């Protein structure tokens, strides 16, 4: 099965700086890579996702890059704000004939943005 | 839209007792997922349903766990008998349809087994 590793486990940045979280996956058949944000005591929420037919996707201050050859993908948050503080999870899955069902999650990164 | 609804939000029970967790997916969503979250193992998929039919239950840890979806608006996850190692946050998530990728998570049920 798929194995997703995520680094770092904790990350502290000054407000306004950038944050980068990296994930690697093991199954070369994986082709869908979502990122979820989970605030303390709250539910995980999808913030951005990327499919394997593109190498980069951006949504305002958030971007995700994918390197299929190296089997790794990264989340980039620019101009960080205190409300970005949360645990971020990457995930990987394959979806040959439709949306993915079994999402394999990384272990999470606790991001703290220091005002 | 109220989103995915789970009940109870917190459950404390003694080892050996039966526990039933409940989930109401977003109206009109065709797929439902049960996840377990622990510090040690992170987020793990337990089982998912498409159109009320269980598709993959390979993530269910053992026979003590069972899940049902009697109709499109209700699902249960049952643990019988419960054990301390079952203590975790259990999330239910739903997805709109076969062409949709995003899973919407419920608020979770924090289960503590003493």
Topology, element by element:
The complex is a heterodimer of chains A (115) and B (114).
Chain A: E1 4-7, E2 10-14, E3 19-25, E4 32-38, E5 45-51, E6 56-59, E7 62-67, E8 72-77, E9 86-92, E10 104-105, E11 109-114
Parallel strand pairs in A: 2-11
Antiparallel strand pairs in A: 1-3, 3-8, 4-5, 4-9, 6-7, 7-8, 9-10, 9-11
Chain B: E1 5-7, E2 10-13, E3 19-24, E4 31-38, E5 42-50, E6 53-56, E7 65-71, E8 74-79, E9 88-95, E10 103-105, E11 109-113
Parallel strand pairs in B: 2-11
Antiparallel strand pairs in B: 1-3, 3-8, 4-5, 4-9, 5-6, 7-8, 9-10, 9-11
Structure in words:
The complex is a heterodimer of chains A (115) and B (114). Chain A is mainly beta and 115 residues long. Chain A contains no helices and 11 strands. In chain A, β6 (56-59) and β7 (62-67) form a beta hairpin. Chain B is 0% helix and 55% strand. Chain B has no helices and 11 strands. In chain B, the strands form 2 sheets. In chain B, strands 2, 4, 5, 6, 9, 10 and 11 form a 7-stranded mixed sheet that branches. The interface between A and B is medium-sized, with 21 and 23 residues.
Share of helix among residues of chain A?
under 10%
Helical stretch tally of chain A: 0
Shape of chain B: globular
Count of alpha/pi helices of chain B: 0
Annotation, overall tally of beta strands of chain A:
11
């Amino acid at each position: 099965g798929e194995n997703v590793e995520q680094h770092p486990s904790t990350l502290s940045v000054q407000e306004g700086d950038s944050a980068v979280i990296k994930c690697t996956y093991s199954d070369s058949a994986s082709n869908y890579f979502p990122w979820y944000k989970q605030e303390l005591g709250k539910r995980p929420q999808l913030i951005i996702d990327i499919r394997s037919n593109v190498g980069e996707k951006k949504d305002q201050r958030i971007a995700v890059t994918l390197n299929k050859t190296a089997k790794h993908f990264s989340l980039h948050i620019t101009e960080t704000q205190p409300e970005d503080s949360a645990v971020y999870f990457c995930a990987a899955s394959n979806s040959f004939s439709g949306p993915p069902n079994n999402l394999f999650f990384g272990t999470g990164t606790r991001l703290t943005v220091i005002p | 839209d109220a989103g995915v609804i789970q009940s109870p939000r917190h459950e404390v029970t003694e080892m050996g007792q039966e526990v039933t967790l409940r989930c109401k997916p977003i109206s009109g969503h065709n797929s439902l997922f049960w996840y377990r979250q622990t510090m040690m193992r992170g987020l793990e998929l337990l089982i998912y349903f498409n159109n009320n039919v269980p598709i993959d239950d390979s993530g269910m840890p053992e026979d003590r766990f069972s899940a049902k979806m009697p109709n499109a608006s209700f699902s249960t996850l049952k643990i019988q008998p419960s054990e301390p190692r079952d203590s975790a946050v259990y999330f239910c998530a739903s997805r709109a349809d076969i062409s949709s990728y995003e899973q919407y998570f419920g608020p979770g049920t924090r289960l503590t087994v003493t």
